[in-house]
Amino acid sequence: NNITIDGDTTLSFTEDVGKRFEAYGWQVLEVKDANRDIDAIRAAITLAKQETSKPSFIKCRTVIGFGSSKEGTHGVHGAPLGAEDIVQLKEKFGFDSKDSFVVPEDVLKAYRSKATAGATLEEA
Length: 124
What we know:
This protein is of the alpha+beta class. The chain has helices at residues 17-23, 38-50, 83-92, 105-123, and strands at residues 3-4, 7-8, 27-31, 56-60.
């Protein structure tokens, strides 16, 4: 997300992590907008699963604090969002602003299904 607690990462970090993993012999895939482009994330995961001769690294470009009034700033890195910003975020993304913590039923069901499948695989 290119942000540290002190500001932009260019202040203290210049490494190209994708190039480092390429040098290790990994397949490197990039998702340029991991905040919005869920299809690109799915496609990268599919490609990573198809590559069986070497490990894969998926580099996802994100924006810290996506959707908040502090989006893209170091102000969201080391401090909690304010109550008003949380209400605005919940409303922006279709959640009830009065609920303190909610996992949508379809998401909960999907995760529970994966947990059950994982437990079955571990027992095998």
